[in-house]
Amino acid sequence: MNSHFRNRFCFIILLLFALNTTFVLAQDENESPSKNEEVKDNSKLKQQRLGFLSFDAFMPIPTGDNFAGKGLQGKTSYNFKAQLFVYKQFFIVGAVGDTYLKTKESTVTGNYSKTTVVNDYLALGYELILTDKTRLGASIGVVGTSIYKNTIFFENNEAYQKDYGKVNIFDVYFDYQLSDSFALYFNYSYRNDKMEIKAPSEIQSFFDKAQFHNIGLGIKLYIGEKDLFSLIME
Amino acid sequence: MNKILQTSLLLISILILKSCGPPEFEKNTRILAKGLIQNQDGDPLSEIEVSVYTSAYNGGFYVFGSNQDDYLLGNGFSSASGLFSVTSLFDKDDDFYIYVNGGDDYSSYIYKTSTEDYTPNDLTFDLGTITLEKFANVQFQITNNNPSETPFYFSFTYKDKNCLEIFEEGVLDISQNFCHIDDVLGFSINENSPQRSGEFTTLLGSEVTIYYTNNDDIEVTETILIDQENFTYEFTF
Question: CA-CA-CA-CA torsion for B159, B162, B163, B166, nearest 10 degrees?
Answer without folding.
Answer: -120
